[in-house]
Write a structure and sequence with these properties.
The chain is of the alpha/beta class. The chain has a 7-stranded mixed sheet, covered by helices on one side. The chain has a 6-stranded mixed sheet with strand order 13-14-15-16-17-18. Strands 1-5-4-2-3 form a 5-stranded parallel sheet. Strand 9, helix 6 and strand 10 form a beta-alpha-beta unit. The longest helix has 17 residues. The radius of gyration is 22 Å and the shape is globular. The relative contact order is 0.12.
């Protein structure tokens, strides 16, 4: 009998030492663009029969269990039944396929130096998006930072930590995923915040702006806003109790934020200038100037002990973290990054050249995502899921 596995069950199997064969039945181009590490691609569609060549791709799995996955769990189910009819007796299907896989989360505590400070990192495993619940264990008051649209995950994480979310903060207008910030704030009936320069980006919904240096108190835990233009003009970082920096897409544990998605000749330009500069190099150069100033004038002025907690971790096309592992904290001391991250040691000219020399591929449909995240366009669940398929592309 064919069994169904939840995406969470699949994550547990991948992280364990279980021996099994994962077979991805999507078309080859979909598989090449984004798949789970170790999966074998056997494209299979409605009405297809398994060829001898396709069977040979999994014949050496006869002594292993087989797990099948596709986009939504449809063709992989038909494929699993085909295998069962051919004598394979330990076959499972991942319910919801890669769409539901994209919604798997790991909830990871970040170690702090204070008994009163609680930081929980929520890792969206397939995309590498990192959000946070930050609060005071004494007052039980908390904020959510950079929540994704699976807002229930943040509510549950706060509840399990014994915290109540009283404010929702985004570090910037995101371009690679649909933000859940405004939605979570509405659901909880609490204030929603962006940096004050988000007003220059034609944000259509209401938010409470946070100025550079402005502080929010959650009991005895203080969260200071630091203006951090570079990745975008409206980017801010949040310094938590002088101990942890929620750095958004400014500084990652293995790179810095890309800089060409927004900026034109004028740093307040809310769009791109692709007609005049189809390569994006002009945008990247202006953003790189601002990012260098942010890093060296603000971030690197903080103590070496500051824990850098980024907004993303880079994920490969085969769904592996570039650094660290799912379920482990994605964070690093600023002093360590100062020593190990070559980009931070470059002078301004070399830094700009490095960031503009080879621009990464732009996130698919990023302009549409920005329209949604500024409230200038609405989105339903189907479109949001399609827009978000695949890993993030925020790092330079």
């Amino acid at each position: 009998m064919i069994e169904q596995l939840s995406p969470t069950d699949l994550a547990a199997k991948l992280d364990s030492e279980d021996s099994f064969r994962l077979v991805d039945t999507r078309p080859a181009d979909s598989y090449e663009g984004w798949h789970i590490h170790g999966a074998t691609n056997v494209p299979f569609g409605p009405g297809n029969d398994l060829s001898s060549e396709e069977l040979s791709a999994i014949d050496d799995a006869e002594d292993e269990s087989i797990v099948t996955i596709c986009g939504k769990g449809l063709t992989s189910t038909a494929f699993a039944f085909e295998l069962e009819q051919r004598g394979y007796d330990d076959v499972s299907v991942v319910k919801g396929g890669m769409e539901d896989w994209s919604k798997v989360y790991e909830v990871v505590p970040i170690e702090t130096g204070s008994d009163d400070l609680e930081i929980v990192q929520l890792q969206r495993r397939a995309k590498g998006c990192l959000g946070y619940v930050v609060g005071s264990t004494a007052s039980r008051r908390a904020v959510a930072v950079d929540p994704t649209r699976q807002t229930d995950r943040f509510k549950v994480a706060a509840e399990e930590a014994g915290l109540t979310i009283e404010r929702v903060l985004d570090t910037h207008v995101h371009a690679d995923h649909v933000s859940g910030g405004r939605q979570l704030a509405d659901e909880l009936e609490v204030p929603y915040h962006l940096g004050e320069r988000a007003a220059e980006r034609d944000v259509a919904y209401e938010f409470e702006p946070l100025a550079d240096g402005e502080t929010i108190a959650m009991g005895d835990v203080e969260i200071e806003t630091l203006a951090a233009p570079g990745h975008t003009s409206d980017m801010v970082n949040y310094l938590v109790d002088g101990e942890a920096l929620l750095s958004g897409d400014t500084l990652f544990v293995d790179s810095v934020g890309r800089t060409e998605l927004q900026f034109g000749a004028d740093e307040t330009d809310t769009g791109t200038n692709e007609d005049d500069d189809p390569t994006g190099e002009g945008d990247a150069a202006r953003g790189a100037e601002l990012l260098y100033e942010t890093l060296h004038g603000t971030i690197l002025e903080l103590p070496d002990e500051t824990q850098v907690c980024p907004g993303h971790v880079s994920v490969t096309a085969d769904n592996r973290y570039e650094v660290g592992s799912p379920g482990e904290p994605i964070a690093e001391r600023l002093g360590t990054l100062r020593e190990t991250l070559e980009l931070l040691g470059l002078d301004e000219e070399a830094f700009g050249e490095r960031l503009t020399a080879e621009l990464p591929e732009k996130p698919p449909n990023y302009e549409r995502v920005i329209e949604i995240n500024t409230g200038r366009a609405s989105v339903d669940e189907t479109e949001a899921t399609e827009l978000e398929l695949g890993p993030n592309n925020c790092a330079a």
